[in-house]
Amino acid sequence: MKREVCLRIRSVTTRPVVVPLSRPIRTASGTIAEAPLLLIDLETDEGVTGRAYLFGYQPFTLGPLAALVHTMVDVLRGDPLAPFDLDRKLRARFALLGTRGLSGMALSGVDMAAWDALARAASVPLVRLLGGAPKPVRAYLGNGFGVLPAAEIGAEAPRLAAEGLAAIKIRLGRPSLDEDLAALRAARRSLTDDVRLMADFNQSLTVREAIARGRALDDEGLTWIEEPVRADDFAGCAAVATAVRTPVQLGENFAGPLEMHAAARAGAADLLMADAQQIGGVTGWLRAAAVAHAFGLELSSHLFQEVSAHLLAVSPTADWLEYMPVADPVLREPLAPATGMVTAPDRPGIGLEWDEDAVRRYGAA
What we know:
Layout: E1 9-27, E2 30-44, E3 49-55, H1 62-76, H2 83-93, H3 101-121, H4 126-129, E4 137-145, H5 150-161, E5 167-171, H6 177-190, E6 196-200, H7 207-217, E7 225-226, H8 234-243, E8 248-250, H9 257-265, E9 271-275, H10 276-279, H11 281-295, E10 299-302, H12 305-312, E11 321-323, E12 341-342, H13 356-362
């Protein structure tokens, strides 16, 4: 019988990069034209390296994120590569600081890299290590119609439709309901009937305004209305979800599965979403998927399509994968949709391999 090798954590290398986005992310709160990423290589004594990346949204976050990742790996140095145990140890060590914000993102990055190393060591894709198999997951274009005037929406449609996805997100939250309706209807007219639309307000409305706009949108055929009000106002979200017929989506900002549980228990949403770097990496996602299953709510992903393709394939109530290729410029083999679906690659680990020339080109000081 072959003896199982126990991997132990040795060190970590982090590299900050700022890569161009193929399409700027235009929301009601501002525009993001570049993606500040922290690339993580978690090394083991046995020579197996696990990879992950974090999306810092603003370049100034990359330094603090790198410092936190290195501090956490210092805490774990020499420990067996057992992600559940590593998660427990880090949460205990950071209990007073808390595991929200940048510290939670760093913990998620270490967790994803640890799971990647474990799957690589076993020579299987992450999804198989988790007990599943690669399978197509329907995908929507997350970086779709930005907060643009209605007159400019139609011109965007052919380029977005060329992505070949079955659904596209439109950002709402313009100064008035009439402007939002005009933009949404312009998008609908510019697309074929088989392409679905999701709307995202990015937390830009008050509860009263969200109810008013939500009711006005109820006959527009939207798949969901995402984050209409402040994401941590579960009572307000519940009031909106109760008052409008269109499903309310919530979750990209949940800092761990316990927040997802609290939101579901409060009736804050009809649909749930998890972001791998906010929810706690692979470990946090597995727990969040169990929460969604327990409440009978569909679970979609936010960003991090590479790892999300594996995780949705083992999630009981998997719904939609958000396709937004923020890391593609530094990946040797980017994950691409096919016939509107995304499938996790059938190769060891998550499937991340850095394009070293691109990493040097986009390296940030």
